[in-house]
Structures are given as C-alpha cells and as structure tokens.
Amino acid sequence: MPELPEVETVRAGLERLIGTEARIARIELMRPDLRVRIPPSLGRRLAGQPITGIRRRAKFLLIDTPAGSLLCHFGMTGTWRLAPPGDERPHDHCYLHLADHRRLAFRDPRRFGMLGLVEPHGRHPSLDGLGPEPLDAQQFTLEHLAQRCRRRKAPIKAVIMDQAVVVGVGNIYAQEALFRAGIRPQRPAGAITRARLARLVDEIRLVLAEAIVAGGSTISDFRQAGGDSGYFQHRFRVYGRAGEACVACGARLTGGVVGGRGTTWCRTCQR
DNA sequence: CGAATCACCTGATCGC
DNA sequence: TGCGATCAGGTGATTC
Question: Which residues, at least 6 apart from A195, have a Cβ–Cβ distance to it below 8 Å?
Fold first, then answer.
C-alpha cells in the first residue's frame, strides 16, 4: 500500500479517528518477528500514555507520546484499521488498545513492515540518512536533485526511489512522475539536463500532492484508516497499464524491468 | 564507490 | 478444480 500518499492518508485518517484526547491503554504484541523485530519494551513504555500527535516522516508513521513515539513502516502490505471486538484477522501482529476501549490493529501479511520505538527527542536508525521531504519546496529542490544525479549512471527511476535522495517515492509514483515529466525510466540520471530535472521535481511534487487529495491509491487491500478506499488508482497513466494505449499519444505502453522492479513507460512520449 | 542482484514473507493471479 | 510459476506498493545485505 504504502508510498508517501498512502502513509499520509493513513496519518490523517488516524488523526481524525483518534482525536486530540486519546490515550493508549495497552499494547498487545502477537508476533514480534517482522522485518525488524518489534522491541518487547514497546508495550511497557507506551501503556497509559496520552497521544500528543501523529506525524509522518518519509514512509514512516509516528505516534507521539511523552514517553516516546511508536514508529511504524508499512512495508508492502502493512495496514492499520479500527478493529471492533470480534474483528480479529490472520496476520494481525499488534493491537493498540485505546483508553476509550477502541482497538487499532496493525496487520501485515508479508511482514516487511516494522514497529519500533523512538525515544523522546531521540534518533532511530531507520530515520537516519533519509533525504528531503518532496512536498517541502525548501527541502527538495532542483539544486538538490541535480547534485544527487551528477555523474550517476543508475537509471533515473532507481535514483528517485532511493530514500536517501528524496523520500516517499516508490514504484508507482516513480513511474507516474517520470511519465508526466516525459523521461524514460531507464535513462542514466547523470545524462538528464537541468531543465528536465526541474520538470521532474515539479511532477514528483504534483503527483504526490494529487494522490494525497485523492486519498491515496487502493491496490488489493489498502484502505484508509476509516475503511474507505483511496481512488488515485483510477488516475494511473502508466502503472499497471503495459500493453494498453498511452493516454497522451495512443501508442502501446511498454513493460519491462527497471531498477529491478516492474516498470511501464511510453516509448514515444518518454525520452 | 556505485550498480545490480538477492533475500526477506505471504497471497493473488495466470497458464496449463 | 488443482498446481506450479510468477508477480506484488519496500528495504537492507551481499556481490560484482
């Protein structure tokens, strides 16, 4: 589910669901062996704590309390949902019980996600080395992207998916942004003019912002925290459309592998 | 050092 | 219907 727009959608949904007076009653860990093992101290530390904010950094969600923050990554299949009594499902790895007796469930069939603890005002290895937030025009600039592309031979798609270069862009939005910018995903990053990189910076920002407004993209089982599905998937121009007609020129879209991941592009519109 | 590949897991889908 | 192969929104380790 989870590139920046999906995580942001969940963040906003949880914020709305939980309100400003919420308190964590207790945390129930059923299966700690995710990609990163869930620290056993999590429950002790956060039990009884008031929730003071819900933030997003890159593709991470942070639930803040005075005793520390719950750090969550969704991997490929992670979800949070409101789970009323009786709604227990396979692959529910953690239940967060609120003081008002509601229960939030973290479910992640593939277990590529993570739950962790960040000390108050502390660091966390997963958050070190992250690049700028793309929606912050002060942070993510042409200057920055051009500098990170200089002399690099890797395909531009791999570069913009590199979380040290810019955060939040995954396999869907990389393809969508490159189509909108008219750049072939496999073009060596160092061989792109400044003018075209400037366009790419704009299109990355635009596509992410549009997707947030649309409530993210629903593929298989992504849902907003309130259970609604996003609808940005209806606006994909290339992702998942190999063999279909280009929305701009009508040519058949090409499918292949770029940066080790399935990729679709238009050989006519993208150069 | 950078770039490519593999590994981690489960589930859905597709072709036979 | 059943079964194996393939693919999937991410990231970190390993290899070349």
Answer: none
Of the residues A26, A111, A237, A261, only one is catalytic, namely: A261
Specify whether A153 is catalytic: no
Query: Nucleic chain C: which protein residues 175-214 of A have CB below 7 A from it?
Result: none
Q: How far is the CA of A260 from the C1' of B6 (A)?
A: 11
Distance in Å from B6's C1' to A123's CA comes to: 29
> Domain coordinates of chain A in residue numbers?
4-127, 142-265
Average pLDDT over residues A147-151: 96
- Given this model, what pLDDT does residue A221 score? 47
- Under CATH, domain A4-127 is a member of which superfamily? MutM-like, N-terminal (3.20.190.10)
Annotated catalytic residue A223: no
Strand segments (E) across chain A = 24-29, 53-57, 60-65, 68-73, 79-82, 92-98, 103-107, 114-118, 254-258, 261-265
Residues 121-150 of A with CB under 7 A from strand C: 126
User: Per DSSP, what are the bridge partners of residue A105?
Assistant: A81, A95
pLDDT cut 70: percent of chain A above it = 96
Residues A253-263 have pLDDT tens digits of 999 999 999 99
Pick the catalytic residue from A45, A56, A59, A107.
A59
